[in-house]
Design brief:
Helix content: 10-25%
Strand content: over 45%
Shape: globular
Largest sheet: 8 strands, antiparallel, barrel
Number of helices: 2
Order of helices and strands: EEEEEHEEEEH
Number of domains: 1
Radius of gyration: 15 Å
CATH class: Mainly Beta
Strand order of the largest sheet: 1-5-4-3-2-6-7-8
């Protein structure tokens, strides 16, 4: 079984810009609930099907499979709830850890989140100077939640 252990943070500043080239991601959700989430994703010309189990603390079961990009595009168009998640992902190596920065577009424009995947929930890592407040425990920042309640609809007072 695959396990995903990740922590999410808002960005403190834009000093990360220019450290990596971004890749365009499109993703949608066939289903999303407390027990499981089924996601379809394209990264450029590659398609993926991902199934995730319930979140327990920072961890959850994750199974990801490469699928034909034509199938992924059809599923995104015909099976997934709108709006789709569209974002540019930047991958940055900082102090021996890989950070992924997602710059959301369209309905979630303006939201930028940094994620780090860990081997263990209590794993230590060096915090980059561009990382701000942790939002790992706030379900609003899950991609599956951003489909239902896009960032553009939030009251940001």
């Amino acid at each position: 079984m695959g396990t995903e252990i990740e922590r999410k943070f808002l960005l403190a500043n834009d000093t990360w810009r220019g450290l990596a080239e971004g890749k365009w991601y499109r993703q949608g959700y066939i289903c999303s609930g407390a027990q499981s989430t089924v996601r379809i994703r394209t990264i450029g010309e590659i398609g993926f099907l991902t199934i995730k189990g319930p979140t327990r603390g920072l961890a959850r079961a994750e199974y990801e499979y490469r699928i034909p990009v034509s199938d992924a595009r059809e599923m995104l168009a015909n099976l997934c709830r709108a709006p789709l998640i569209e974002k540019i992902r930047y991958t940055i190596d900082f102090a021996g850890s890989i950070w992924e920065i997602d710059e959301f577009k369209k309905e979630n424009d303006g939201l930028v989140i940094a994620e780090i995947e860990l081997e263990q929930p209590q794993q230590q890592f060096v915090m980059p100077p561009w990382v701000g407040i942790e939002v790992s425990d706030d379900p609003r920042y899950r991609n599956s939640s951003l489909v239902i309640d896009p960032y553009s609809t939030w009251d940001k007072k």
